[in-house]
Design a protein that fits this description.
This protein is an all-alpha fold. The chain has one domain: Orthogonal Bundle (Tetracycline Repressor, domain 2). The chain is 73% helix and 0% strand. It contains nine helices and no strands. Helix 1 packs across helix 2 (36-43) and helix 1 packs across helix 4 (57-81). The longest helix has 27 residues, at 125-151. It is elongated.
């Protein structure tokens, strides 16, 4: 009689599936309206199995936030790698801004989950620290691109790289809110980004 070999479980993959189940729920309910039991049901596992990977809701939330941020960074990196060997700073900034807008179902869900995390971060110090971590790096990256444009003679005279980095992030945040509320279409949001960049870069 042949013994049955137990199926190996990829624990990292299981944690990622749980995180994705949390995102789907959070994108429609927010984080406060989601329990561990809800997430387990959405992931197709028992509550006990979920608690094997995450001891409490806070641990699950932090892991899911780190994972979604990693996916967003990978999407932006892949967008840039798909460009030419030495893409112009304006092109890099446009691709990054496009990834920050709800232009498709995937980014829309990610942004809705991000908003849910933002709301929780207002009163949860642990989540707030993780939400804050990515902003300085994004601002520095944008400022570096504007600085490259100045050095290459591709930016308008007098452009302040650090200030423009902050303003571009603020613009995409505002356009995202309007697009998610259907005040403007995603295509209109991207159009406003293009208009803004046209003002900052020479032809």
């Amino acid at each position: 009689m042949t013994a049955t070999v137990p199926k190996r479980v990829d624990h990292g993959e299981r944690r990622r599936l749980i995180a994705e189940a949390l995102w789907r729920l959070a994108s429609t309910r927010g984080l406060e309206g989601v329990s561990l039991r809800d997430v387990a049901a959405e992931a197709g596992i028992s509550l006990g199995q979920l608690q094997h990977y995450f001891s409490d809701k806070d641990e699950m939330l932090v892991f899911a936030l780190e994972h979604i941020n990693g996916l967003a960074e990978n999407r932006i990196r892949n967008r840039i790698l798909a460009l030419s060997d030495d893409p112009a700073p304006r092109t890099v900034l446009r691709e990054c801004a496009a990834e920050m807008l709800p232009l498709d179902a995937e980014t829309r869900t990610g942004l809705l989950v991000g908003i849910a995390y933002f709301v929780r971060a207002l009163n949860d110090e642990r989540v707030r620290r993780h939400v804050q971590e990515g902003l300085p790096a994004l601002r520095a990256f944008f400022a570096d691109q504007f600085r490259r444009a100045v050095e290459r003679g591709e930016a308008v005279s007098g452009l302040d790289p650090d200030m423009e980095a902050v303003l571009l992030i603020a613009l995409t945040d505002g356009l995202t809110s309007s697009a998610l509320l259907d005040v403007i279409t995603p295509e209109e949001a991207m159009g406003w980004v293009d208009r803004h960049l046209d003002r900052l870069f020479t032809a």
